[in-house]
Amino acid sequence: MGYIDRIIDESETDFSAVKEQANKAGQLTTLKLDEYLLPGFIDLHVHAPQWPNAGVALDRPLNEWLDTYTFPLEAKYADVDFAKRVYDNLVTELVGNGTTTVLYFGTTHNQANLELAKACMNHNQRGFIGKVAMDNPDQTPDYYRDASAESAVADTETFIKQMMELNKTADIQQTPVITPRFVPSCTPASLKGLGRLARKYDLPVQSHCSESDWENGFALEHYHKRDAEVLDEYGLLTDKSVMAHGTLLNQSDLDTFKERGVAVAHCPISNVYFGNAVLPVSKLLKQNVKVGLGTDISGGYSPSLYQNIRQAVMSSRMLHDGVNSQLDPAQRGTENDAISARNGFYLATVGGAKSLHIKTGQIKAGYLADLQVVKSPMPSFNEETMDQIFEKIIYNASKDDVKQVFVQGRLAKG
Ligand SMILES: O=c1[nH]c(=O)c2nc[nH]c2[nH]1
Where does the Amidohydrolase-related domain lie (predicted)? Predict the structure, then answer.
């Protein structure tokens, strides 16, 4: 149930019969002339508790931003009613923007994290959800931290079991994810314990890696290693790992990612504010490193992957051409090719699906029926090719243009 059975063309002999049968069963959806069917999007990086801050507080570098705005907000999720209110609204918004699968960071609080899973179930969204582990007293505040490495690991294991229980009543399965916040927030003991859990339960892992000068420098200063090496040492880089940002990954990190099958969640809007560099997406794709797209709410201000595709294209063009007008054109740019709207769309669909090992992101027999019906947002004055219509949608669609959303064939919007 929930998979695309067949793509049938009008020219096929049984087309009319199949259509009639679907109609009789009340299962026929007919698109209007200006509507198009696209695969649902996969958002590879969302901090669910940060939704109330989306669109504010982007005026400080990462470490100050965490301490000043983000940790105080995340601490509020000890209040389960607050969590319910925010998570219901967030999941509605993401589905509304055509996003059918999301890889979420929760908070340290398991009850709130379970509310996020329930919101996904209620709105027919596929969630991958992590209880955030952060136990390092030097880098986290008293009011928002796991009490110890042991409790960070034990609470993660409890959350895994709670999610397994919840899934017994779920139409769309929700997956628990091992979630060390990032190297600075965790102690070696919690990283080690979480690596053990990832192996024991064969679960996805998510974290942040090489995401800013400060964070990159932290691992070098405290471990005398790159943060990718630290995560690898504790068994946290696997073919089910998704690492956010990666703007400062070097070639040896990329080789490790390739070898282990680790995916990068590219968060182009957030990277403008916190990344200190632009992720060279075309270079990663050429090297067969898996890459998907993330909104990174609230480091990224927008819940729309359409907006993030646009920013991914624009950032890649600036990376290619360079930005310092005082340099000669030959010195100004880099060798990294700019990416296209199609490449961005690939990241938001196939790239995300490969990163999470799910059969979705393509409209093909045997793939999950995760779909969005999008109305063309722009007028057309001449006959246009499908490519032109596609580009207009990618560059201009907003939430209001996403008319219907299906996840595993179940209506989630519209
Ligand atoms: O963009 C980010 N958002 C966060 O919440 C975070 N925590 C660690 N590193 C982070 N980066």
Answer: 36-411
| Residue 181 Cβ < 6 Å to ligand 1 | yes
Global ipTM = 0.98
CB 181 within 8 A of CB 236: no
Nearest CA to ligand 1 atom 2: 299
Q: Please state the domain extents for the chain.
A: 38-356
What is the average pLDDT value for the chain, to the nearest integer? Answer: 97
208 lines ligand 1 (CB under 6 A): yes
Nearest CA to ligand 1 atom 3: 299
Residue 275 Cβ contacting ligand 1 at under 6 Å: no
Whether 70 is in the pocket of ligand 1, judged by its Cβ within 6 Å, is yes
Report the amino acid identity of residue 63: N
Stretch (H or E) spanning 122: helix 110-122
CA of 397 to the centre of ligand 1 (A): 28
Q: Which two tokens stand for residue 297?
A: 């709410």
> pLDDT tens digit string along 91-150?
999 999 999 999 999 999 999 999 999 999 999 999 999 999 999 999 999 999 999 999
pLDDT in tens, 200-237: 999 999 999 999 999 999 999 999 999 999 999 999 99
What pLDDT does 175 receive? 98
- Please give the CATH superfamily to which domain 38-356 belongs: Metal-dependent hydrolases (3.20.20.140)
Annotate 156-174 with b (16+ C-beta within 10 A) or e (fewer).
Answer: bbebbebbeebeeeeebeb
User: Which is the closest atom of ligand 1 to the Cα of 70?
Assistant: 5
pTM, two decimals, is 0.98
Percent of the chain with pLDDT over 70: 100
* CB 207 near ligand 1, within 6 Å: no
Q: How confident is the model at residue 1 (pLDDT cuts 50, 70, 90)?
A: confident
Burial of residue 400 (number of CB atoms within 10 Å: 0-12, 13-18, 19+): exposed
Judge contact between 347 and 309, C-beta under 8 A. Answer: yes
Atom of ligand 1 nearest to the CA of 185: 8
Cβ–ligand 1 contact at 270 (below 6 Å): yes
For residues 71 and 185, the answer to whether their CB atoms sit within 8 Å is no
Could you identify the atom of ligand 1 that is nearest to the CA of residue 105? 5
